[in-house]
Specification:
Helix 1 (2-28) crosses helix 6, helix 1 (2-28) packs antiparallel against helix 10 and helix 6 (169-192) packs across helix 11. A hairpin with a 5-residue loop joins strand 17 (536-546) and strand 18 (552-563). The chain has two domains: 2-32 and 39-359, Spore Coat Polysaccharide Biosynthesis Protein SpsA, Chain A, CATH 3.90.550; 417-620, Maf protein (Alpha-Beta Complex), CATH 3.90.950.10. A seven-stranded mixed beta sheet has the order 3-2-1-4-8-6-9, sandwiched between helices. Strands 15-14-16-17-18-19 form a six-stranded mixed beta sheet. A three-stranded mixed beta sheet has the order 5-10-7. The chain has helices at 2-28, 55-61, 84-93, 111-122, 141-146, 169-192, 207-212, 225-235, 256-273, 286-296, 301-321, 337-353, 381-405, 427-436, 467-482, 516-526, 593-599, 601-620; strands spanning 42-47, 70-76, 98-103, 127-131, 135-136, 154-158, 161-166, 202-206, 239-242, 247-252, 356-359, 362-366, 372-373, 417-422, 445-449, 485-495, 536-546, 552-563, 579-581. The longest helix is centred in the N-terminal third of the chain and has 27 residues, at 2-28. It has 624 residues and is α/β, with parallel strands linked by helices.
């Protein structure tokens, strides 16, 4: 019975490779010519951390584009990053190009998304092209990649890639996987499944569409920022376009440990982000399935025959795939393809066993939907983090005792206290903001106060026609009433099929007597005949911070998703039970509070307001 099942799977896998080969040839048969009259100004965003193999040549290839107007923004988290001198060298070699280096603060666990968040805000042009640091391109790259954006229905352009210059055995195995396993699977996914994903090699997107999904801050705590970008753009009703331009990733020398950690991380990400599709990858395991069949049958003549045919077919398909993808250099490594296929199957199995990943030397645990979090106290680093406050307290106590013994009076420096008003009567909301803003105080002490704490009972009438107008109105009014730095917000649900309703009226929808249950019932009734593809929606939050003197700043956050068919979950409030979060596979009401506080529209708006609030708090405390 098991042997028969394995035989069927092996035959199906061989059929998969024949179909994949045909689709690869079909896709690359007639490359689309770029449109000469469509060349809008472009901002190229390059997040960098450390040095990849031949990094300068990789960077340099982006400075040699046959394109009329573009800028290149390199971003690092650390001003001492070894890539910084290379960027300075590029600026000297290409003085006619607008090349900028930006040091970006870390706003989430995903450092790449953190850098992209800052680069996107600094970019001058509407069209943004994102590319990983280890990519190398030809002069036609920008024209080919940007051209599909002429179609307003295309929201994102992403590129396949191939591995080049592998210097070690493990790098050659990686090049094999990228070139003749992963790339064909992408073409199959494009034909058989909806193209709702992107690849980090290259992504081209309009700034306005990026803003609609909350920017890169919306997934700064996700592992697969490229997948999140693709699925969220698709949720806007826009098309993700797979370009026929193949980018080159320069592999250089890699170790087995590096490769294993990287590919297991990819496997974990695929399983958690797309759990229904992950088992289907078995169809690409023709060699491992044939080996299992051989072991199961004895080995038998049938087992040996199937294994031989599977190997020959796999080698033949791999050879053919290198033709339309212009990857002839890979053919010299095809002898190792069976080893690579067995390794791929092992990595797939490893992706099933744990949610722990290693990324750039840091350990994380993956949560549903691909959210990152730091490991629990069971990890080696956790005890030190846990004991840090206690050790600091012990140190301070010992210092006081030593001063006492010596007869001197300990010198105690008073830390200024800054009071900030959160415009709410809700203690839960006050605590949520205090948690989200815990890192803005610096060396100062901040006391977060509610309206009740300062004795304000007056309600500000929300007469604005937009959420920003209401947030500004509340922040400014309460700041002047209290004499304190004041934070206020306004938020709401915007449903695509209802033209953005209920929007600014979300809290008042259904009349003054309606409660959350009534409003949800009304919305579901209005959406009952709307098909799944048209149930897109987003939560929007606008935060305003105001000084008593009338200086007002705002920040906006968006959480994209779809309207569910029925309420699910017990966390949260308002419309949370019927708001299915993109990429998370659950409603906001089903998400644990610590997850919701990292992905919600309010959390995204908070990240945007933090730099301004940090500056204002420092000014209030006399620290410049």
């Amino acid at each position: 019975m098991i042997a028969a099942f394995l035989l069927v799977l092996t035959v199906a896998s061989c059929a998969y490779w024949v179909i994949a080969c045909w689709w690869v040839f079909t896709f690359f048969r007639t490359p689309a010519e770029p449109l000469p009259d469509f060349a809008p100004p472009v901002s190229v965003l390059k997040p960098v951390r450390g040095l990849d193999h031949e990094a300068y040549e990789n960077f340099r290839s982006f400075c040699q584009q046959d394109y009329p107007s573009y800028e290149i923004l390199f971003g690092v988290n650390d001003p001492a990053d070894p890539a910084v001198p290379l960027v300075r060298r590029l600026q000297r070699e290409f003085p006619h190009l607008d090349i900028r280096l930006i040091v970006a603060p870390v706003i989430g666990y995903n450092r790449k998304a953190s850098i992209l968040h800052t680069l996107a805000r600094e970019a001058r042009h509407e069209v943004l092209v994102l590319s990983d640091s280890d990519m190398r391109v030809t002069p036609a790259y920008l024209r080919r990649v940007v051209a599909p954006l002429r179609d307003e229905h295309v929201g994102l352009v992403t590129c396949p890639y191939r591995g080049e210059i592998p210097l070690t055995f493990t790098a050659k195995l990686e090049a094999l996987y990228i070139g003749v396993t992963f790339l064909p699977s992408v073409i199959v996914a494009r034909r058989f499944l909806k193209m709702r994903f992107a690849m980090g090699a290259t992504n081209a997107v309009r700034r306005r569409d990026l803003k609609r999904i909350g920017g890169f801050a919306a997934f700064a705590d996700y592992l697969a920022d490229d997948y999140q970008l693709g699925v969220r753009i698709a949720d806007l009703g826009l098309r993700v376009h797979l370009s026929d331009y193949i980018v080159s990733t320069i592999l250089g020398a890699t170790t087995f440990r590096e490769q294993w950690q990287r590919e297991v991380r990819w496997a974990h990400c695929n399983r958690i982000s797309r759990p229904m599709e992950y088992p289907g990858l078995i169809l690409s395991f023709s060699t491992p399935l044939a080996v299992l069949l051989l072991i199961t049958t004895g080995p038998s003549r049938l087992g040996w025959a199937v294994l031989l045919l599977a190997l020959l077919l796999r080698w033949m398909v791999a050879w053919l795939v290198t033709i339309p993808t212009h990857n002839a250099a890979l053919r010299q490594h095809l002898i190792w393809l069976p080893v690579r296929d067995m390794l791929t199957a092992l990595i797939w199995c490893a992706g099933l066993l744990s949610r722990r990943v290693i990324w750039r030397g840091e350990a994380f645990v993956l949560e549903p939907g691909g959210l990152l979090r730091t490991p629990t106290a069971s990890s080696p680093a956790a005890p030190a983090t846990f004991l840090k406050p206690a050790l600091e307290t012990v140190g301070q106590t010992l210092g006081l005792l030593l001063h006492s013994k010596s007869g001197s009076t300990p010198m105690i420096r008073s830390t200024p206290m800054v009071k900030v008003l959160i415009a709410t009567h809700n203690r839960g909301k006050l605590r949520e903001y205090a948690d989200l803003l815990a890192d803005v105080a610096g060396d100062l002490r901040v006391e977060w106060l509610s309206l009740d704490d300062v004795g304000i009972s007056a309600e500000v009438e929300e007469t604005g026609t937009t959420m920003e107008e209401n947030a500004r109105l509340k922040a400014l009014t309460y700041a002047r009433l209290s004499g304190l730095l004041t934070l206020a917000d306004d938020s709401g649900l915007e449903v695509d099929a209802l033209g953005g309703a209920p929007g600014v009226q979300s809290a008042r929808w259904g009349g003054p007597e309606a409660n959350d249950h009534d409003r949800i019932a009304k919305l579901l009734e209005m959406m009952k005949d709307v098909p799944p593809a048209e149930r897109g929606a987003q939560f929007r939050c606008v935060i305003a911070i105001s000084t008593p003197q009338g200086e007002v700043h705002t920040s906006e956050g968006v959480c994209r998703g779809q309207i569910a068919y029925e309420p699910r979950g017990t966390h949260g409030f308002g419309y949370d039970p019927i708001f299915h979060v993109s990429g998370l596979r659950m409603t906001l009401a089903e998400a644990a509070p610590h997850i919701k506080n990292r992905i919600s529209h309010r959390a995204q708006a908070v990240e945007g307001i933090k730099p301004v609030l940090r500056r204002l708090i420092a000014r209030e405390g006399g620290v410049q």
